[in-house]
C-alpha cells in the first residue's frame, strides 16, 4: 500500500513533469510549424497524426527516464519502495505485475498513450468541433495537452519504478 508520505513527492513529480513537458512540447511545436499553413485533421499539415505520434513517443520517453531514475532511488535507499498486498487498490496490483524490463515498460506506456489517450483526445476534439488550428493555436494546445499527458502518466511510471522487490539481476536494466 502507498502511504501518505508519497503524496507530496508525487505532487512535485507530477507538477515538474507536467510543466516541463508543456513548455518544451509547446515551444518545439511552435518552432516547427510557425511558418506552416493551418493544421487540419489529415493531410500535409495535420494534427491528428501528430497527436497519435506524440501520444506514443512522449510516454515512452518519460518512462525511459522516470522508471530507472526511481529504481536507483529505491536501490540507494533514498526513497522507500511501495509494497503491494491484498488491501492495495487494483491499479497497484496491475502496476505491480508490470515486467522488470525497462524497454517493455516504455512500450506499454507508449501503447497506452497511442491506443487510449490519443483516440480519446481526438474524440474530444471532434465532439468540440475542432476542424482547424492555426500554428499558434496548435502550439498552445499541444503544449497544454502534452503537459497533461506527462502529468497523468508519470504517476503510474513512478509507481513502477518505486515498487518493492526489484530483482537484483535486473540492475543492469536501470
Question: In words, what does this structure look like?
Answer:
It is a single chain. The protein has one domain. It is 68% helix and 0% strand. The C terminus is likely disordered. Helix 1 runs antiparallel to helix 5, helix 2 packs antiparallel against helix 4 and helix 4 packs antiparallel against helix 5. The chain is an all-alpha fold. It is elongated.
Keywords summarizing the entry:
174 residues, mainly alpha, 5 helices
Describe, in short, the structure shown.
Helix 1 runs antiparallel to helix 5 (135-162) and helix 2 packs antiparallel against helix 4. It is built from 5 helices and no strands.
Strand content: under 5%
* Rg from alpha-carbon coordinates: 18 Å
Poorly predicted spans: 168-174
In one word, what is the shape?
elongated
Major beta sheet summary: none
Q: How many E strands? A: 0
End-to-end CA span: 24 Å
The number of helices is: 5
Compute the number of structural domains: 1
Helix content: 55-70%
Compute the average pLDDT. Answer: 86
Secondary structure topology:
Layout: H1 6-33, H2 48-75, H3 90-96, H4 102-128, H5 135-162
Helix pairs in contact: 1-5, 2-4, 2-5, 4-5
Amino acid at each position: 500500500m502507498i502511504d501518505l508520505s508519497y503524496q507530496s513527492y508525487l505532487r512535485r513529480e507530477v507538477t515538474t513533469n507536467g510543466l516541463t513537458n508543456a513548455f518544451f512540447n509547446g515551444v518545439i511545436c511552435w518552432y516547427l510549424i510557425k511558418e506552416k499553413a493551418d493544421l487540419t485533421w489529415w493531410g500535409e499539415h495535420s494534427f491528428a497524426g501528430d497527436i497519435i505520434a506524440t501520444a506514443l513517443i512522449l510516454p515512452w520517453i518519460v518512462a525511459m527516464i522516470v522508471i530507472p531514475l526511481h529504481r536507483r532511488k529505491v536501490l540507494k535507499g533514498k526513497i522507500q519502495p511501495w509494497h503491494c498486498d491484498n488491501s492495495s487498490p487494483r491499479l497497484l496490483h496491475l502496476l505491480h505485475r508490470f515486467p522488470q524490463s525497462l524497454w517493455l515498460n516504455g512500450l506499454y506506456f507508449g501503447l497506452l498513450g497511442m491506443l487510449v489517450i490519443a483516440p480519446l483526445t481526438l474524440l474530444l476534439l471532434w465532439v468540440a468541433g475542432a476542424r482547424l488550428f492555426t500554428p499558434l493555436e496548435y502550439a498552445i494546445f499541444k503544449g497544454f495537452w502534452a503537459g497533461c499527458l506527462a502529468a497523468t502518466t508519470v504517476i503510474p511510471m513512478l509507481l513502477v519504478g518505486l515498487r518493492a522487490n526489484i530483482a537484483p539481476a535486473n540492475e543492469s536494466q536501470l
